[in-house]
Write a structure and sequence with these properties.
Layout lengths: L9 E9 L5 E9 L10 E4 L15 H7 L3 E5 L4 H13 L8 E6 L2 H11 L6 E5 L29 H8 L1 H4 L8 E5 L10 H9 L1
Parallel strand pairs: 3-4, 3-5, 5-6, 6-7
Antiparallel strand pairs: 1-2, 2-4
Length: 206
Amino acid sequence: LRSAADLSNFEFQRETFLARDGTAVGVMLAFKKGLRKDRNAPTIVLASGGLLPLPAPFYAPHLLAWFEKGGLLAVPLTDRALDVEDAGRWLVAKEYTRPERLAVAAVGRGALAAGVAAIRAPEVFRAAVLLSPLTDLLGLPRMAPGARWVRDYDPPEVPGSRARLAELSPLHRVEQGVPYPAFLVSAGSWDQEVHPAHSRKLAARL
């Protein structure tokens, strides 16, 4: 399908911020021209999926409506949960937005970073959207078809890996009594990449 959208109305910028560990992290920003830094822009931090630090190019027509309404999209060029969290803090510090108008979103493996960021920093994000997310790295070997993801992570039985996997898993970061952001978590009953139990278990835990 051919889009009739006039992309000249939109701006695309690459910025850099320092994560708390001193790492310089790139972030792509997209918005309609004329966006003001008044802490009022509804903003989505989109966490990339996969182990590579660069997200794949994509086209999403519904984002045009988001931009037309004054929305901002920020895509950190990283897959670390720490960087996703710090991207949110940077957007607030630069007065693009404020926590009440800030959400984090991701699909599949990228939701590992998005989910952990929202759970680690509930004061930074107002909402989290996790579509068919990986959430339980400790349970990966027991959940086909996603069991093949195990080759990308050390199995839980490997000495020293259990604590690291729990640190990376949104499911295992949830604590009782914490006022977490609003979560929208989806699951595909016949998903051939990520077992729906990942979504169901996180929803139940939250």
